[in-house]
């Protein structure tokens, strides 16, 4: 029997002593991003559980999104990822911008 060596950890212990594993990450087809899901992805990228490019392709995220999530979760924690701004009338929602766009570049 051969044991394959992992390039990345499967489980990481966060500074607050909680354990984050690959199984804790959101599903690849996640479309509704609440603060807790953003925090899990950002912490996985920061602590090496998930590669940055893998996070981009798996969750269809841009560089700017990942950068802002990582910056906010490292400075303010998961509370910094909450969106509390009220939607202004007449402004298109995020999913309206993304309609017709696909992650695979087509």
| Terminal-residue CA separation | 42 Å
CATH architecture of one domain, by name, is: Orthogonal Bundle
If you average the pLDDT, what whole number results?
Answer: 81
CATH class of one domain, named Mainly Alpha
C-alpha geometry: globular
Q: Strand share of the residues?
A: 5-15%
The CATH superfamily of one domain is known as Winged helix-like DNA-binding domain superfamily/Winged helix DNA-binding domain
Under CATH, the topology of one domain can be stated as: Arc Repressor Mutant, subunit A
Please identify the structural class as seen in this structure.
Answer: mainly alpha
Helix content: 25-40%
Number of strands: 2
Write structural notes for this entry:
- The protein is mainly alpha-helical.
- The protein has a domain at 11-84: Arc Repressor Mutant, subunit A, CATH 1.10.10.
- It has helices at residues 35-46, 52-59, 63-75, 94-98; strands at 11-13, 19-21.
- β1 and β2 (19-21) form a beta hairpin.
- The termini are far apart.
- 13% of the residues are buried.
Summary, kept brief:
The chain is mostly helical.
Question: Which features would summarize this protein structure in a list?
Answer:
4 helices, 2 strands, Arc Repressor Mutant, subunit A, two-stranded antiparallel ribbon, 106 residues, mainly alpha, globular
């Amino acid at each position: 029997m051969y044991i394959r060596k992992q390039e990345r950890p499967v489980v990481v212990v966060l500074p607050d002593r909680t354990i984050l594993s690959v199984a804790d990450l959101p599903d690849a087809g996640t479309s509704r991003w609440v603060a807790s899901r953003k925090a899990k992805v950002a912490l996985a990228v920061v602590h090496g559980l998930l590669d940055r490019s893998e996070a981009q392709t798996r969750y269809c995220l841009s560089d700017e999104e990942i950068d802002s999530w990582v910056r906010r979760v490292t400075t303010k924690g998961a509370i910094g990822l909450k969106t509390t701004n009220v939607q202004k009338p007449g402004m298109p929602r995020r999913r309206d911008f993304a309609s017709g766009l696909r992650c695979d570049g087509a």
